[in-house]
Amino acid sequence: MCAFGLLVCAAAALASGGKGDGGSLRVNRALRATHSRRECDRLISEGRITVNGVVVNSSDDRLRPGDVVRFDGSAPVPWSDDELGPHRYVKLHKPRGIECTTDRRVEGNIVDYFESLSEVEGGVEGFGGGGDCGDDGDSLRARRVYPVGRLDRESTGLILLTSDGSVVNPLLRSGEEKSKEYLVTTEPPASREDARRLARGVVITAPARRDGEIVDVTARTAPCTVERSGGEGGAPAGIGLRFVLGEGRNRQIRRMCASLGLEVIALHRVSFAGVTLEGCESLGSWVSLTEQEEVLIGARRRKKERTPEEVARRKAKKAAKKEKRRTERDGRGLGEWY
């Protein structure tokens, strides 16, 4: 390699701390406990983050075990080597009173609550727990997880949490139409006509992000499934409503019911994108997703099912390739011998 090429490679290694992509962590994730990703990217662009004394030039630079991260020359930023482990995908049976926010300054935020579940078996006192901790035996601190979407503080039921940001947007984008099922109790109880009107769609006003800003948007909700039901699946007893939504506007069900003069007094989510509360039926309990559930949320590719004939053809093709390589290898050996 020419001298110029060596110089370029050395400079790239210095900028990234000599790290490759495998088994590494992006620098902007080391500060995520105190700063948002955009804030971290801004600090990096301003040259205020160093790794092992070298100014970080890109958010794509990587960390490896033992690297020392500093912000404005301050004391080393604590980050765990465990963050380099495999991604985690978890479902939690959220009790009432937990706020689905990653802002740890908020009392009762779901990040602190979820981490505390690994320390107190059977739930956390003061939060109405009582379920079992996850049965996979892993520590929740192995890799910090964050909620996918949100449930209101007063709502209960299924919430997904993950350390894998790549699955979040596809799950939440309205165009993906990942169905969410809820059991709802209203006061007064909804009539059959109320259920029909809600299913056809009603006009509500809800905040939404437009061009980077939060604005109020008034629009009719998309047609959805709304049925009258009894108290089941964790919902309070009595006549209630079963909603299956494909969209996810801010406090949508509460606003839909309010448009008909119905006050929601209990809202319980029982499924999201095909994942249910199976395995964590009690409040405050959690389990890691199964392989099948990881497929449902897009974290794992679905294994293609092949017929016996296809399996036999693939085996024969693989055996033929192996035999061809062996023959070519033997031929080269004979040529050298003679």
Give the biggest sheet.
9 strands, mixed
**Average of per-residue pLDDT values:** 79
Form type: globular
CATH superfamily label of the largest domain: Pseudouridine synthase I, catalytic domain, N-terminal subdomain
DSSP summary: helix tally: 8
Order of helices and strands: HEHEEEEEHEEHEHEEEEHEEEHH
GO molecular function, one term: pseudouridine synthase activity
Pfam families: PseudoU_synth_2, S4
InterPro entries: PsdUridine_s_RsuA/RluB/E/F_cat, PsdUridine_synth_cat_dom_sf, PsdUridine_synth_RsuA/RluA, PsdUridine_synth_RsuA/RluB_CS, RsuA_PseudoU_synthase, S4_RNA-bd, S4_RNA-bd_sf, TruA/RsuA/RluB/E/F_N
Protein name: RNA-binding S4 domain-containing protein
Question: Any overview of this molecule?
Answer:
The chain is of the alpha+beta class and 338 residues long. The chain folds into 3 domains: 82 residues, Structural Genomics Hypothetical 15.5 Kd Protein In mrcA-pckA Intergenic Region, Chain A (Roll), CATH 3.10.290; 143 residues, Alpha-Beta Plaits (2-Layer Sandwich); 94 residues, Alpha-L RNA-binding motif (Alpha-Beta Plaits, 2-Layer Sandwich), CATH 3.30.70. Helix content is 25%, strand content 23%. It has 8 helices and 16 strands. Strands 6, 7, 8, 9, 12, 13, 14, 15 and 16 form a 9-stranded mixed sheet that branches. It has a 3-stranded antiparallel sheet with strand order 3-2-5, with no helix packed on it. The chain has a two-stranded antiparallel sheet with strand order 1-4. The longest helix is centred in the last third of the chain and has 30 residues. The protein starts with a helix and ends with a helix. The N terminus is likely disordered.
